[in-house]
Amino acid sequence: MLSYLRTIRFKAYKNMKNSFQDFLKKNEKIIGSIASSLSIIMFFSLIEIFISNMQGRSKIFIQPLATAFNGLFWSLYAYGKKDRFFLVPNLLGLILGTLTVMSIFL
Question: How many independent structural domains does the chain possess?
């Protein structure tokens, strides 16, 4: 009886997992567009740190440096996969992160 219940539970989980994966696959472009837009908004938040660094009020460099490296490696991955949804926002993150880190030393 216990084995039977486990089998039913596993099948229900497997069906639920497959239906969620199907949903994601069908809506891949919409989800990719939303994710790219949110990444761009997140990377534009570096402009505030950049301005603070240029005015001499802040010397934050860990977050922009991490953003730059993250953008670099995701851009390399996206370029290899030829995936513009990953490439565009991560190139922006690479550029803004690098500029923000450089602004600390100016």
Answer: 1
Q: Residue type for 64, please?
A: P
Query: pTM score, two decimals?
Result: 0.61
Residue-wise burial string across 30-43, b where 16 or more C-beta atoms lie within 10 A, e elsewhere: eeeeeebeebeeeb
- The CATH number of the domain holding residue 62 is 1.20.1280
Residue 96 corresponds to which tokens in the numbers above? Answer: 């803004």
Domain region containing 97? 28-104
pLDDT digits (tens, 9 = 90+) for 35-85: 778 778 877 878 888 888 788 887 777 888 888 988 899 999 889 888 888
Task: Residue 95: name the closest of 56, 50, 53 by CA.
Answer: 50
